[in-house]
Write a structure and sequence with these properties.
single chain; 77 residues; 3 helices; 81% helix
Length: 77
């Protein structure tokens, strides 16, 4: 995946997480921390150069785990 395309995808994901933060008025401090950590990790990925696809996938898995943690906790699934 090209760096430009990767950064566009990361930007879109960051925007979507920001939308969740703004639209959910009853988020706990823990929920906000989880979402902020996901955003921080995505911003780190944007700045990181020379990532192989395998390393990129590992970092994305960590972000997805954080997002899952938020949704499973929020909806008691």
């Amino acid at each position: 995946m090209s760096r430009l395309k990767r950064n566009q995808n990361i930007d879109g994901l960051i925007e979507n997480i920001e939308t969740i933060k703004k639209s959910q008025c009853s988020l706990s401090v823990e929920d906000l921390n989880v979402l902020n950590e996901a955003i921080d990790r995505l911003q780190f990925l944007k700045k990181k150069k020379g990532l192989t696809d395998k390393h990129l996938q590992q970092h994305i898995v960590e972000v997805v785990e954080l997002i899952n943690k938020f949704f499973f906790k929020s909806y008691n699934l």
